[in-house]
Amino acid sequence: MDKKTLWNAVIAELQLSISNANFQTWFKGKTDIVAWTDNQIEIGCNSTYTKDWLDQRYHGQLKSIIDRLTEQKTTLVFSVAKDLVGTAVAKSPKKFDDGTSSLFTEQKDLDAFQEKVSSANLNPTYTFETFIVGSSNQLAFAVAQAIAENPSKAYNPFFVYGGVGLGKTHLMHSIGHQSLKKTPSKIKVLYCTSESFTNEMIEAIQNRRTKEFRSKYRGVDILIIDDIQFIAGRETTQEEFFHTFNDLYANGKQIILSSDRPPADIAKLEERLRSRFEGGMIADIQQPDIDMREAILLSKIQRQNLDIPQEVIHYLAQTVSSSVRDLEGSLLRIVTQASLNNTSVSLELAKSFISQKQGRGVGVKLSPKEVVELICNYFNIRLTDLKGVSRVAKLVLPRQVTMYLLRKDLGLQFENIAQLLGKKDHTTVMHGVDKIDKNVEKSEKLRGLVEDIRSKMYN
Ligand code: ADP
Ligand code: MG
Fold first, then answer.
1. In terms of residue numbers, what domain contains 7?
2. Cys-Cys link to 224, which of 131, 132, 152, 191 (CB 3.0-4.6 A)?
3. Which ligand does the CA of 325 lie closest to?
4. Is the CB of 176 under 6 A from ligand 1?
5. Does the C-beta of 168 come closer than 6 Å to ligand 1?
6. 133 and 235, same structural domain?
7. Looking at the domain assignment, is residue 95 inside a domain?
8. What is the pLDDT along the chain (459 residues), one digit of tens a residue?
9. What element of type H or E holds 78?
């Protein structure tokens, strides 16, 4: 057996035992056996990141496959192979319909089917290949792949939910890409946010173009609507969407929806829509664990050919746990900072960035109860009033701020917050958190107040 045959056999086995995304990120076209002498095998990688990552995470697995195939005890060494070093090019960020811009773009994405991709409203960088899979998103990922392979079969509609910045939009775009890749000429995909659906509908009504509007949304094979929770409380939009949904569904078309919470928790969502959303497959995406955060950073770094020390990656993965968006954002800001300072990225720089960002120590050391007490003291109100039902503004604001901080900073579940504050219904808590969430964006005064309390919480 020569080294090429051996590596092909190894790759074939790996492909069966690890997720496609990990396979694409770490193996496909990125590794090869570059030398094989006696029982020593040198695995060449396209970058130091791949090399370190393989050595740390896949050493055992690779060795056991190779030992079995070669029928000997081998020693593996990992190196960077010049021939494999990639040609990823960073391009300027582009804004997409969901308001996000993508930080990382690859040259190879600019290929022929770009046309299709852009008329479907898809972000070219949000593909399965760039999506890292771990226990927090495994189910959602598996369903997404199954849909891309076989739309409108087992999982219709597909409803994916989870917190901000955890990959819902990325995953939904990936389904669109993959379906287009399979049968680009036949299949029609359309991605939009529920807000642009709403806006377009209103415009269509004003301009007497509802016919065109309907044929646009009902004429696709796969309709992807992001952040569907925003149609709640909007009568006409819900009515229109209900008919769009039914029409597509009856014609065997795939519907994919995302939201920050499960259908049952979307307040002011019409019952008939709720029951339809619950009639297919529902999967959630949770916060990634530290290993996955590290894998996400590594894959971003690799695709951008950035030079970041391992300890910085590790540090970021450890400290930025809230969302993937936050993780990516922190990385980008550190890289920008370093290039502005004309220095390289170091652990010191990363640490100073993180502490600036937090404006405080590492985490909250108070218990939920202590946070509630602190807030009562801060506003000079009694605990019984905070927990009470009085609607006077003097009490409503502290109550909602409490809900907000318990959720955002301590990561408590809505149900637990409700319990802690003596509320029967956790939707009250959701409303409270939403209210502050929206208003801190708008009001500098509220932002200052929340930050002031935070500074006390973190001290
Ligand atoms: P959401 O829609 O849930 O708010 P996004 O899909 O917009 O989150 O993800 C935020 C950012 O994090 C995007 O740049 C996305 O590419 C990235 N991201 C999220 N999850 C993953 C993942 N599992 N692998 C790679 N990148 C991810
Ligand atoms: Mg999103």
1. 3-80
2. 191
3. 1
4. no
5. yes
6. yes
7. no
8. 888 889 988 988 887 777 766 777 778 778 999 999 989 999 998 877 788 888 888 899 999 999 988 989 999 999 988 888 753 333 333 444 444 444 334 434 445 587 788 889 998 889 999 999 999 999 999 999 999 999 988 899 999 999 989 999 999 999 999 999 887 677 899 999 998 899 999 999 999 999 999 999 999 999 999 999 999 999 999 999 999 999 999 999 999 999 999 999 999 999 999 999 999 999 999 999 999 999 999 998 988 888 899 999 999 999 998 889 889 888 988 888 888 788 899 999 999 888 877 754 446 778 899 999 999 999 999 999 999 999 999 999 999 999 999 988 887 888 899 999 999 888 899 899 989 988 887 787 888 888 788 878 876
9. strand 75-80
Classify residue 204: in a domain, yes or no: yes
Query: Is the CB of 301 inside a 6 Å radius of any atom of ligand 1?
Result: no
Closest CA to 262 of 249, 240, 277: 277
Structure tokens at 452: 């002031």
57 DSSP assignment:
I
Q: Which residue has the tokens 């287009």?
A: 180
Residue 233 sits in the same domain as residue 126: yes
Alpha-carbon gap, residue 43 to 54, rounded angstroms? 9
Structure tokens at 370: 């202590």
Q: Which of the listed residues 285, 309, 325 is the one where a domain comes to its end?
A: 285
